[in-house]
């Protein structure tokens, strides 16, 4: 996720800004930049890649000043190249801005700026429009930076934290926020603005939390906050007593837990930016015509680990909504056969990192065989995204814990949107049914929040079961994928042996393993299959095993047959997989914690598997 640091004061601004940005490195970024104000000019340096690369470019004595803004960028609009890095300048070079968030109407603003003001854009980003809008307004309003920022942001839709400096104003940074975090602080040597607390902890622990639509004027000696009506706000400082490491995790004990809690925001973002005002799906970056979709013989989904479980759900969705036969495969297996892939295959790669070697090689093989490649990727500019014909970015933000959580639920959201859109393009999905599903998807962030409210219940459950040495997960239909994902999550971070299987397969062999006290998690989120799952529970209970059932709150009979239940908010079966996986992530987390495991960096595992 992008990071912002701004400083005005007695110290060298570039040193303060680089130090602050370093504290945000853990969040992930792919380019960085700094703008300073010095002698009536804006001095700008930007680099793609690591902050250390930028540091080497700013050693010159003449690149310094006592006011400036800096940014680390996690690419969304536009690849992670130098030109797309922040800060961005207005055409006359007098205004520099950094921005976190997404400007939804940037295309419209960009076209207006080009058409009506002859602006030439230097980057592919949504953010550059902000620099030009502020630049024009600043010139028209006699250098009133506050007014210029207000006017410009008044035209923007979306989420933003924006910080601005002007070449002829060496004393002031103006910042504003809407749905993206912003904080400010002061010390003996100057004042600061930043996107996140860790960036400021070296200088101050007393910070101002900026609220939505508030504008901040940052001078050397003070920080002034104004509400949307430009009335000065009196804000108490908040004292931060976390240490820097905890602050990086936003107060959570582990990145995994933080990322679990980021899921409502992640799935909301993945969904909302693709929905038009009328709830119509817009898959920017993916152009699949009716003619093409009607003429492909199948969709082939390939991925590894957690991403492959998302692929299993994707298969069900594509077959259900788009009525196209769909196959799934593990990327590590795909290459060692001679798979039926040709120009009539749409090949979908799913990868959080976009750098998984097996997935990348499978992609290349499918390309050689003539397939079009659509990838679902989290990291912009990654190898998988670069080598694909169409890319759907999940925009979950950086996932730091090795155990994938928010990447998975946003991959599922990607599949819902892709499958629904494919069905619409082919004219095979009923319009009202599609509308109903979209409405259900819209309600998911709030329902995931509700599931998260049950963390304590799951923690108590974990206390009852963390000493088990074998745990089984079963499900039917789309719950099979959730069972696999729950099992993988548990084994990779707790090191407990766990096994997942389609419920109907138990009786074909695995049932022999059931003994008194064998623990089963039964995923039963599908109403259509609930009766069958109940019979399965009876069979397991008859062998004196223990059963925890994860089902919807409406399925009260589960409480009569299972030893215990975790109840999900009611929803349509189609969207239930996004809800059902969340308690399983939390369970794995708490069991691993009770077993004192290294949760964010489990043994033998790497976040990105770049070897075969
Ligand atoms: O970056 P990718 O999505 O391609 O990674 C695939 C797997 O390596 C990954 O999902 C792995 O299984 C995770 N550790 C699961 O939590």
Q: What do these coordinates show?
A:
- The model has no long low-confidence stretch (mean pLDDT 93).
- It is built from 20 helices and 25 strands.
- It has an eight-stranded antiparallel sheet, covered by helices on one side. Strands 5-6-7-8-12-13-14 form a seven-stranded antiparallel sheet. Strands 17-16-18-19-20 form a five-stranded parallel sheet, with helices on both faces.
- Helix 10 runs parallel beside helix 14, helix 15 runs parallel beside helix 20 (576-594) and helix 16 (455-465) crosses helix 20 (576-594).
- It folds into three domains: 3-241, Aminohydrolase, N-terminal nucleophile (Ntn) domain (Glutamine Phosphoribosylpyrophosphate, subunit 1, domain 1, 4-Layer Sandwich); 247-452, Rossmann fold, CATH 3.40.50.10490; 455-594, Rossmann fold, CATH 3.40.50.10490.
- Helices cover 37% and strands 23% of the residues.
- With 612 residues, it is an alpha/beta fold.
- Bound molecules: 5-amino-5-deoxy-1-O-phosphono-D-mannitol (M6R).
């Amino acid at each position: 996720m992008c990071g912002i640091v701004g400083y005005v004061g007695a110290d060298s601004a570039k040193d303060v800004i680089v130090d602050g940005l370093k504290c945000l490195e853990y969040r992930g970024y792919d380019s960085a930049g700094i703008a300073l104000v010095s002698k009536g000019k804006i001095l700008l340096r930007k680099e793609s890649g690591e902050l250390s690369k930028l540091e080497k470019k700013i050693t010159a004595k003449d690149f310094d000043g006592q006011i400036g803004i800096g940014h680390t960028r996690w690419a969304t609009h536009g690849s992670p190249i130098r030109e797309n890095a922040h800060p961005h300048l207005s055409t006359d070079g007098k205004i520099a801005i950094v921005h976190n968030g997404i400007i939804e109407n940037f295309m419209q603003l960009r076209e207006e700026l080009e058409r009506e003001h002859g602006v030439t854009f230097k980057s592919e980003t949504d953010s550059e429009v902000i620099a030009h809008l502020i630049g024009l307004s600043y010139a028209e309003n006699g250098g009133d930076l506050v007014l210029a920022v207000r006017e410009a942001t008044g035209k923007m839709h979306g989420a933003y934290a924006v910080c601005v400096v002007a070449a002829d104003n060496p004393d002031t940074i103006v910042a504003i926020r809407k749905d993206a975090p912003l904080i400010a602080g002061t010390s003996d040597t100057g004042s600061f603005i930043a996107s996140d607390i860790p960036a400021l902890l070296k200088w101050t622990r007393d910070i101002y939390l900026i609220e939505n639509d508030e504008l901040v004027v940052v001078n050397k000696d003070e920080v002034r906050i104004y509400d949307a009506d430009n009335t000065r706000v009196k804000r108490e400082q908040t004292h931060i007593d976390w240490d820097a490491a905890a602050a990086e995790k936003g107060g959570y004990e582990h990145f995994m837990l933080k990322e679990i809690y980021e899921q409502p925001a992640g799935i909301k973002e993945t969904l909302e930016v693709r929905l038009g005002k009328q709830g119509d799906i817009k898959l920017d970056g993916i152009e699949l015509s009716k003619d093409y979709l009607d003429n492909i013989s199948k969709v082939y989904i390939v991925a590894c680990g957690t991403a492959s479980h998302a692929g299993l759900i994707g298969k069900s969705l594509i077959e259900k909504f788009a009525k196209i036969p769909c196959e799934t495969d593990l990327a590590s297996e795909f290459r060692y056969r001679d798979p039926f892939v040709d120009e009539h295959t749409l090949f979908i790669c799913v990868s959080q990192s976009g750098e998984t070697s097996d997935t990348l090689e499978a992609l290349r093989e499918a390309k050689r065989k003539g397939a079009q490649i659509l990838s679902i990727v989290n990291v912009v500019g990654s190898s998988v995204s670069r080598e694909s014909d169409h890319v759907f970015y999940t925009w979950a933000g950086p996932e730091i814990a090795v155990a994938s959580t928010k990447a998975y639920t946003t991959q599922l959201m990607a599949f819902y949107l892709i499958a629904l859109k494919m069905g619409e393009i082919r004219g095979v999905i009923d319009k009202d049914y599609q509308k109903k599903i979209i409405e259900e998807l819209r309600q998911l962030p709030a329902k995931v929040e509700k599931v998260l409210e049950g963390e304590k219940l799951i923690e108590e459950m974990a206390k009852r079961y963390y000493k088990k040495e074998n745990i089984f997960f079963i499900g039917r239909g789309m719950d099979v994928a959730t069972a696999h994902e729950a099992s993988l999550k548990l084994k990779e971070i707790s090191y407990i042996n766990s096994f997942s299987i389609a419920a109907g397969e138990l009786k074909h062999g695995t049932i022999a393993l059931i003994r008194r006290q064998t623990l089963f998690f039964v995923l039963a989120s599908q109403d259509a299959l609930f009766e069958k799952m109940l019979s399965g529970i009876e069979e397991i209970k008859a062998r004196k095993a223990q059963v925890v059932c994860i089902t919807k709150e409406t399925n009260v009979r589960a409480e009569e047959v299972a030893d215990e239940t975790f109840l999900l908010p009611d929803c349509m079966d189609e969207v239930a997989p996004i809800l059902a996986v969340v308690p399983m992530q939390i369970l794995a987390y708490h069991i691993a914690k009770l077993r004192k495991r290294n949760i964010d960096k489990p043994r033998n595992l790497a976040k990105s598997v770049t070897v075969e």
